[in-house]
Amino acid sequence: ISLGYAVVRYHLLGDVPWKDLPVFILNKTFAMSALILLAINFALGPLKNLGVGIPNNWMRARRYLGIMGFMQAFVHLLLSLILLNPGNYGKFYAVDGMFTFNAGMALLGGVLGFLVLWVYNISFNAAFRKDKDLLDFITSRPVLLTGMFFVGLHLFFFGYEGWLNPGGWHGGLPPISLVTFSVFAVGFTINLFGRE
C-alpha cells in the first residue's frame, strides 16, 4: 500500500523521475510502512485496555508486526544516510552548507526515536529477560511515549512546510510525511490514553 501510494503520488501524478524509485521513493515507502506497522503494534494492547475487542490472533501477531516495522525502520535509516545531501534535500541545508533548524530537529527526532525503538526491540532477548526491573523500565509507558514523541518530532520537522501548501501536492495527494504523521498522531493518542 505504501509503495503504491508513493508511486502514484511521486511518479504518476508528480514529476519525480523513475530513476529515483530504487532509493529515494523506496526510502519514503519503507518509512511509511514501518510507522504504520509499529503504530498498529503499539496500539493493539492499549486499544484492548480501552475496551475495544481485539482478536487474540491480532494480539499474538504484535511481535511480528514489531519486528517487520523495526527492520523497515532500519532500512529507512540506511537509505536516508545514503540520500542525505543538498542535491536530494536542499531545503535542509543553509547557505553555509550546514543543516537548518528544521533539519536538525528532524534528524535528532529520527535518531532518538530509532534508538528507543532499537533498545525496546532488543529488550525482548534472553539476556534482558533476566533483569525484570530493566525490562519493565524499557517497556514502560513513559519510555515508549518518549520514543514515539521523538518519531513524531522527526516527521513534523521533516515535512510540515509541505503540509501547509496543498496547491503543491502532487495530484492533490497529501505528502507521505503528512499521511504518516496522521497515523502517528492516532497511534500516539491511543497509547497516551490506553497504555498502562
How many helices? The count is 9
Characterize the largest beta sheet: strand count, sense, and whether it forms a barrel.
none
- Average predicted confidence as pLDDT: 93
Low-confidence stretches: none
Q: Care to count the β-strands?
A: 0
What is the percent of helical residues?
A: over 70%
What's the gyration radius in Å?
A: 18 Å
Shape: globular
Strand content range: under 5%
* Span between termini: 31 Å
Structural features, described:
The protein starts with a helix and ends with a helix. α2 packs parallel to α9. 72% of the residues lie in helices and 0% in strands. The protein is mostly helical and 196 residues long. The longest helix has 29 residues. 28% of the residues are buried. It is globular and about 50 Å long. The chain is built from nine helices and no strands.
Topology:
Layout lengths: L1 H11 L8 H29 L6 H5 L1 H22 L17 H22 L3 H4 L2 H7 L2 H23 L12 H19 L2
Helix pairs in contact: 1-2, 2-4, 2-9, 4-5, 5-8, 8-9
Brief summary:
The relative contact order is 0.15.
List its traits.
single chain, 9 helices, 0% strand
